[in-house]
Amino acid sequence: MMLHDGNVDGDQVGANPAFIRQRLHRWAHRHGRVFVWRTWTDDYRLLVTEVLLKQTRAEDVAQIVDELFGRFPDPASLAKADEQLEGLIRHLGLVRQRARQLRDLAEALESGAPTVTNDELGRLPGIGPYSAGMVAAMHGDPLAVAVDTNVARVVCRLFDLTPTHFEARKSTNVWRVTQVLVGRHRRVRTIWAVLDLAAAVCTAHKPLCTVCPILPDCAYGSVRVTEVNQHRPKASTQNAKAKRGSQPRRDGLQGRRS
Asked: What distance in Å separates the CA atoms of residue 120 and residue 118, rounded to the nearest whole number?
C-alpha cells in the first residue's frame, strides 16, 4: 500500500481510512486496554500522567496514579514535592529528570499557563508534541494528533511508509499520514486503538500479523503472512504420509517404522 510524497490527503492513502478506523474501533472495543486516565478531563491530571507515561510502560503508571494524586491533588502541592515524589515514581525510571519535569510543570500550571491550544500545551515543561497532541485530542480538538514510536511503527507498516527522519516519530510524513488515518471524529479513540494494537499485536519484534484486525489493509502484514505461509510445511501432505505409515498394509504386514 504505497503513499505519495508531499501533502497527504485521504485520496493518497491506498485504503479507505474510514474502513481501517472501523476495524480498529471494533477490535479495541473487545481487546483495548482500560486505563483510568482515559476517562479524565482535568488538565492537571492529564498532563502529569503524560509525563509519567514517557519511556515507561502504561501498566506501571497505572499502579501509582491514584496514590500520586492522593498525595499531590493539585499543582501547588506537586510544585512543592520533596523526595517523597521521587520515591513514588522510582520504578518508572528517569527518576530525577521526571521529578524535575513534574515540579516544573506544576509550577507552570499554578502560575496560570494557558492549556487551550496544541501550541500552548506544547510549550509546557515536559510536554512534547506527542503529549500535547494527546491531551488536545482528549479535549476534542478536531485537528489534534499524537505520534510516538508505537504509533509510528503501526502507520509505517500499514502504509509501507518510509520515514523522512531517522526517528519515525519525528517524521513529518508520518504525522501527516497519521492525521489522515485518525480522521476528524473520535480521534482520541482511534489513537488509543492504534496504541493498544501496537502493544498487543503490532509489536516491535515478532508481530502477530495473522490476528491483526487491519491485516487486509496492511502492506507489511500481507507480505509477512505470505512469506510465512510459503515456508510452512503443507500439513495435508504430512498428515497423509503419517496416516499411510500407520495403517496396516493390504498384504497383512505393518507399515515400515523408520
From this structure: 5
